[in-house]
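Hi,

I'm pasting everything inline rather than attaching a file, because the server keeps stripping attachments. The sequence lines come first, and each chain or strand is labelled.
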Amino acid sequence: MAHAKNYFQLGLKQALPFIFIVGPFGLVFGTIASNAGLSVIEALSFSIFVMAGSAQLTALQLMLDGSPTLIVVLSALAVNLRMMMYSASLTPYLGEAPLKQRILAAYSTLDQSYALSLQQFETEPQMTLQARMRFFLGAAAPVIPTWYISTFAGAFLGKSFPADLPLDFAIPLTFIALFAPLLRSAAHISAALSATIAAVVFSDVPYNLGLIMAGFVGMSLGAATERHLLARPDRP
Amino acid sequence: MNLSSAQIWTVIILLGFGSFALRFLFLGLIGDRRLPDWLMRHLRYTAVAIMPALVAPMLLTAPASSEAIDPVRLVAAGATFAVAYFTKKVLASMLAGLFVLYILSFWG
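And the predicted assembly:
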């Protein structure tokens, strides 16, 4: 009998390089949060409870804009809607695990763990449920503590150089750096472009509701473009 | 800045529960039933729609505090986008944008 693979270690090993992406991002979030007036405890709690960088930055930006709490939360959740998509697409692979494991897996659903795991599950379809769960948790294992520690470090150090960071520009800059690499098809580009135009058109809508409206416009156009491209007979 | 501690904690807790709910919804509650294709198709584009929509008004509309769009920031944002789009390196593109921002503000 072949030696059983240690799938937790395998996932962990594959996720290790993400430390160098998540770490700096956590430093950025921590620094921005501390410059925005959050205490170290508040910044760290943000990262522990929410565990999603772009949603956390969205919430921070909207709070700084003076948006009402409900709008802050709804908009940040809209940024996190992709987690629902991840959850849905992981369900066929992990859905039969015990509840406790599924709770742990839900918290560990991140861009990185999702992308690595889906690739792994598809290339090795004979994996057992237990092996899949181990790989998935392994792929989240290096990312989660890195996010906590780097947020803490950023918030802690951010206090010592408060004037240096152009806060109001650091946030848009971070978002551009995050979404531009995701624009890998015509559908993604049409979603981003139409959402951009809609956001400018709707920028005077009260309570920052224009953001959510523009998000719907972008999602609809992205989905419509995808359907159009798929319908073309010259496409696979 | 004067964010109130009460608002910060309310946001942390609500957003924390909400984010967990989004992640748990299907894995925990729906089981292995598939989502309809049209819904998956829309969800695929949430990130690339919401993030640009958040950025656009900050760069392309004049804030109440100043009289015009800042061309320096627009160029720096463009540089960030170009580097991020072509290299897919998040940190490198942020540094490129900040670099352009500082160079241009220095000359301006």
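Chain A has a mean pLDDT of 89.

If the labels don't parse on your end, tell me and I'll reformat.
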